[in-house]
Amino acid sequence: MELLKEIGAFAGLVAFLGLAVLALLSFAQGRDLRRLREWAGSAPERDTERKDATSAAAAERAEEMRKLEEAREAEKRAADQREHRRERRDAGLPELTRSERLRERFSGSDDGHGGGLDGRLGEPRYLIAIFAVLIVVAGGIAFVVLGSGGDEAGGKGGRQGKQAPRSLEPSEVEVTVLNGTAVDGLAGTFGDMVERRGYQLGAVTNSRSSFSESVVMFDQGNARAARRVADSLEISKVQPMNAEIASLAAGAPVAIVIGEDNASTAG
User: Fold this and answer.
1) How far is CA 125 from CA 120, 130, 136, 139, 241, in A?
2) 94-140 per-position pLDDT tens digit
3) Domain membership flag for residue 88
4) Phi and psi of 215, rounded to 5°?
5) Alpha-carbon distance 232 to 49, whole Å?
């Protein structure tokens, strides 16, 4: 019996010590769990999520406040407008001024039914009508541009067609003959040649300067006539008329100056 009592006392002591150790371990585990929860709650990811959620909530709240403020301002403007119209009615005036009526017509009606121009433009029939008008305008512009181009081309073609078949008649050209050499009678000889070819003979005289080469000179706008005369008389040189020859041509548009290369023609 004494042995059992000693064993029981020892077992009780060991059990007490085990409970004490178990309590300490449980307390330490609880403290570690509490620290782990605190760390998890203050983790950077959680902190970012909380900040994002807070920012989104703040932005949503700011948007709600802005809309509420706009609604209040719109309501206040509508009340002021109604009061203004009432005062105009009491004074025997139209509710809206001319500028207000125009602004309301082009910006939309106050009742929010889209009665203004902005509301009507969104309707399909008005979009189709605008599209049709644009097509008509574009077609008209294209017709005018192409028509004017065609008329211009046709006009040029017509003028060319009129000029091409019509040849310059010699009787329409007056020709002055000048002797640019010391050979007497040379201008008269070429004058006879000019008349035989059907040209109008103008002045027949001597030039003040000597010419080594025969030349046909022309006044402004008569180059074609001068080339015709030069071909008739087999003179290769054609050039505009200078002041000296113009003063001797007596108004004739074409002048022939006989040079030394044709001096033998008088013989």
Assistant:
1) 9, 9, 17, 21, 72
2) 766 766 666 666 565 444 444 555 555 556 676 787 878 888 888 87
3) no
4) -150, 145
5) 106
Burial of 190 (0-12, 13-18, 19+ CB in 10 A): buried
Burial class (CB in 10 A: 0-12, 13-18, 19+), 81: middle
Please say whether the beta carbons of 179 and 262 come within 8 A.
Answer: no
Q: Give how many domains the chain has, as a whole number.
A: 1
Residue 61 pLDDT > 50: yes
Tally of CB atoms within 10 A around 254: 28
136 inside domain: no
Confidence of residue 19 (pLDDT cuts 50, 70, 90): confident
Put the strands of the sheet holding 238-240 in their side by side order: 200-206, 174-179, 254-258, 215-218, 238-240
Domain harbouring 244, CATH code = 3.30.70.2390
Q: Say if 119 falls within a structural domain.
A: no
> If phi over 0 gives left and psi between -120 and 50 gives alpha, with beta otherwise, what is residue 112?
left
CA angle (195 as vertex; 191, 196 as ends), nearest 5: 115
Residue 211 falls inside a structural domain: yes
pTM score: 0.40
Above pLDDT 70, what percent of the chain? 73
Tokens of 160: 């060319």
Domain that includes residue 258, residue range: 170-266
